[in-house]
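Exercise 7b. C-alpha cells:
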C-alpha cells in the first residue's frame, strides 16, 4: 500500500479493507490469504493510511508531546506526572509492537492521560492561543493542498471501487 500510495496513503480506515487485496497481489491467496487486520505497528499503519504527507503532522504532534513529557518544571505533582509519563511511555511501547489505539477504551484512556499531563504541567488552564508564524501557516496550507490533491487522484484512480474490482477480480456491478 505504501509503495503504491506513498503521498496520501489509502485513506483512514481503508487498511483493513485493502489488506486482503494487496496481499493477493503479493501471492497471499487461498489458505495463505491475509485476513483484515492492522499493520501490527502504529506508525506503519498510519503511513499506509495517511501517506508521507499525512504522517508529517502526526510525527510533529508526537515530537511536541515528547517535549512536554520530558520538560523539567517546578510545578505540578511529581508523583502524578511520573505516573502519567510512565503510562504514556507504556502506550508508546505497545504502539511499537501493535495497534492498541484501535480499541475505543484504550484511545479514551490515552487522551485522558494526555490531558492529565497538560493539567499537571499547568499548560491546560493557562494556554492562550498564540498566532501561527507565517511560515507555519504556509507550510500547513501546502501540506493540506498536496494531501487533498493526492487523495483525489488516488480516489478517482485505482482506489475507486470499480477500478479495484477490475484489478483484484471482484464481482462488481454499477
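Sequence design result:
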Amino acid at each position: 500500500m505504501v509503495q503504491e500510495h506513498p503521498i496520501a496513503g489509502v485513506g483512514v480506515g481503508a487498511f483493513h479493507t485493502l489488506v486482503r487485496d494487496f496481499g493477493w497481489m503479493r501471492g497471499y491467496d487461498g489458505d495463505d490469504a491475509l485476513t483484515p487486520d492492522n499493520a501490527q505497528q502504529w506508525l506503519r499503519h498510519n503511513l499506509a493510511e495517511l501517506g508521507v504527507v499525512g504522517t508529517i503532522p502526526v510525527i510533529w504532534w508526537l515530537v511536541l508531546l515528547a517535549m512536554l513529557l520530558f520538560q523539567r518544571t517546578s510545578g505540578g505533582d511529581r508523583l502524578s506526572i511520573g505516573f502519567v509519563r510512565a503510562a504514556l511511555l507504556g502506550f508508546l511501547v505497545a504502539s511499537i509492537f501493535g495497534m492498541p489505539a484501535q480499541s475505543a477504551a484504550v484511545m479514551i484512556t490515552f487522551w485522558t492521560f494526555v490531558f492529565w499531563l497538560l493539567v499537571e504541567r499547568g499548560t491546560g488552564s493557562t494556554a492562550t492561543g498564540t498566532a501561527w508564524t507565517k511560515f507555519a501557516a504556509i507550510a500547513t496550507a501546502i501540506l493540506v493542498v498536496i494531501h487533498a490533491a493526492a487523495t483525489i487522484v488516488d480516489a478517482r484512480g485505482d482506489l475507486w471501487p470499480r477500478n479495484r474490482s477490475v484489478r483484484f477480480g471482484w464481482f462488481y456491478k454499477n
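Instructor comment: DSSP finds seven helices and no strands in the chain. The first helix runs from residue 15 to 25.
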